[in-house]
């Protein structure tokens, strides 16, 4: 799942600055999300067949759900480009995408450390994800302030404000992954 | 509580397509919500008097809270019709209401299975509720896209977008009930 | 942390009715939030050095997070005054601020009772916080209804609606503190 998050967020970041074919972009992002949903289904099925799990079943569930939320979040952002016919490039969206790429790599790193049972080393990527979320929150303030200062068409303002907010909420989802991991570390070390 | 959810959602669905008396509609929905709040109060009082509970006290609390959130959600939707003076019928709202009716019946079924200790059978309604939430998310995208394509008055757009989003969020609350139930099943089977 | 919440909310309430210097107001509110963040950091560091904790580590974590969310919420409200150049006094915002001051004092009382191990006495402030949240929800409905009835500029409406909603969401954060405390009481009494 964390590999798919990295792929999806890198695809989003690589394409969002220059959207030539919005329907294809939205469709590809939906495909990443469906792939992640299939992993969730597999994890649940395996969990129901397995008696002994390496960490608590509920922790596996919570982690699965929080990872799934990241992909749901970024896919929901991508869909708004299509729903709202947003095509012009936007430097703020590029900055959010870059933040999410960095956060996705930290998630991948943390999940790798979990699989290697290097629990205490997870704190480092968890802190990095929290820091990136703080930066995204600051970025949201800057770009919403700038939007209200420049955009006089209320409907255009509503569209772009929602995309900025959904991007920032996706960094909140990344932070939830970090918090879930920290709570697993706390219970298992 | 699940009976009251079914009643409230069916009342909402039966009336929302043709709102003759919005204040009465909002008042009746508030009454369902207050009834549910009284059940929450009774459950909490009983829980504080009881030493041995059939499932963990915290699970009872989590389930109670998630059921209460469904009614809070649908009541908050109903109140917006009054706050925003929305009277004209809207086919999308009817579709959301229908989705919620089906979800409410699955919740009732799942709670019945819990009371009968048929824990493993709960997976089926839980999956159905998740599927209905996915459909509601797709419906939200369709109707918000259509709203932005047709509604040129930004204030009308804000009103209707919020109602659609609150209806979709109520299906998220139904999904939270399903997830709470699945986690209870996981810990008790 | 609960002392800082009281300070921050009282400062917000004392100044919001007559905002002469919005940047200074937003900056001071940010300072309260940073102070709270430093407490969170200290709690986490201490928690990682300590073997035996008076209540479960996870409960300490959950409580810390929920207290932090209250300050994040009120600081986010304050920042919107600056982002949106909102300067004119607003009687509804004053009422929300008053609600939050009362809630903050109940939080402080509840945390004091926890520190004194008077667990059962925590129910009283917890109920008071829930009641204040209900009142804030009613207030939100009144002021949003009034806003739509009077404000014809959609961009002004968006700004003010968001501030009202964020204030109400901050009372939801207070309620989360109350719910976290009730669940700690339930597990420890």
What can you tell me about this protein's structure?
Three copies of one chain form a homotrimer. With 189 residues, chain A is mostly helical. Chain A has a single domain, classed as Methane Monooxygenase Hydroxylase, Chain G, domain 1. The first copy, chain A, has helices at residues 2-16, 22-49, 57-83, 91-115, 123-150, 154-188. In chain A, helix 1 (2-16) runs parallel beside helix 3 and helix 2 (22-49) runs antiparallel to helix 3. The radius of gyration of chain A is 17 Å and the shape is globular. The two termini of chain A are 24 Å apart. The mean pLDDT of chain A is 95. The B-C interface holds B 47, 57-58, 61, 65, 79, 82-84, 154-155, 158-159 and C 141, 144-145, 148, 152, 154, 157-158, 161, 179, 182-183, 186-187.
Give the tally of structural domains of chain A.
1
Helical run tally of chain A: 6
Query: Hey, which two chains have the biggest interface?
Result: A-B, 13 and 14 residues
Total strand segments of chain A: 0
CATH evolutionary superfamily of chain A: Phosphate transport system protein phou homolog 2, domain 2
3D shape of chain A: globular
CATH class of chain A: Mainly Alpha
